[in-house]
From TrEMBL:
GO terms for molecular function: transferase activity, transferring alkyl or aryl (other than methyl) groups. One of its GO terms (cellular component) is membrane. This is Bacteriochlorophyll c synthase. The lineage of its organism: Bacteria, Pseudomonadati, Chlorobiota, Chlorobiia, Chlorobiales. InterPro entries: Chl_synth (IPR006372), Prenyltransferase_related (IPR050475), UbiA_prenyltransferase (IPR000537), UbiA_sf (IPR044878). The keyword Oxidoreductase does not apply. Keywords: Cell membrane, Chlorophyll biosynthesis, Membrane, Transmembrane, Transmembrane helix. One of its GO terms (biological process) is chlorophyll biosynthetic process. The chain crosses the membrane at residues 23-42, 49-70, 98-118, 125-143, 155-176, 183-200, 227-246, 253-272, 314-331. It is a multi-pass membrane protein.
Amino acid sequence: MAGTSRLGFTDKLRAHLELLDPVTWISVFPSIAVGAMASGMMQPTVHDFLILLVAFLMFGPLGTGFSQSINDYYDLELDRVNEPSRPIPSGRLSEKEAVWNSIVVFCLALGSGVSLGLHFGGGRGLVIFSAIAIALVLAYIYSAPPLKLKKNILTSAPAVGIAYSMLPILAANAMFSEVRIEAVWLAGMNFFMGVALIIMNDFKSAKGDEESGLKSLTVMIGTKNTFLVAFIIIDLVFAIFSWLAWSWGFTILFYMVLVGLVLNMAIQVLLYRDPKGGLSFMQHAVDDGFGNAIGKSEVQEHNSFLRYQVANNLLFLINLLVAGGMIGVTYM
């Protein structure tokens, strides 16, 4: 441990980057893409692509990075049990260095929101600035006392769903047009999908949560019931999605979503029957195909969830992106 204070510049930089947990940045990109596409107004210009890049940096490396950094700082004792190799518990970063990490990315994220808000102005600018400001506040109170939303799944999952899944869609949509009502629907569905996935993601820290008194759903009702609750939410999202596609006149999308629902339910049955070893035929996709994007786990139930996440994300996000594109075409 003592030797870690003498880490070289490159190793320190790597530790700071790891504290921001780059694997989580990816999750906001589909949301930003869907919001931009649904506007129907994005043009193939340098300006618009730069705006899209700034949006990703604001919600990804900066916004999401802040949430991960501040979470690691306040969860130091918990991470000594659940993830001892993380930068702070491993000693590669001091607590003071972690604080400076979170301050820097917070300021950069908020500064980006202010800049974009002023650039667009009016109601659209207000939506963009409010989106990142709310996301940053939620990221802080999620981990920090006295609120510490992560103590209870009834507050933690909605907070993450709003910050990660809903607000990026609305902000990206506002960057290119007035916020479309269809984009609001997509943001709402993405919110509930995010809630369901966060519920299952807590499998990885169930042991530490139980020891520290955190009320994750897994701790309160057990693994199989947690899967069941998440599956019900996911299937309802697919069902509402199919109804919306039909009401919007997107017949092809309607059938695509229905197929996605049926396949999802079939996969869910396999996983519910075997929470620890379910979907083992997809392990190769996790290890070699998507491992760097969604992470890996030593907890059997969480590893099963990661296998499910690959299938669910493909089924849902493809349909979400197609919906964004179809909506955008109607506004061109």
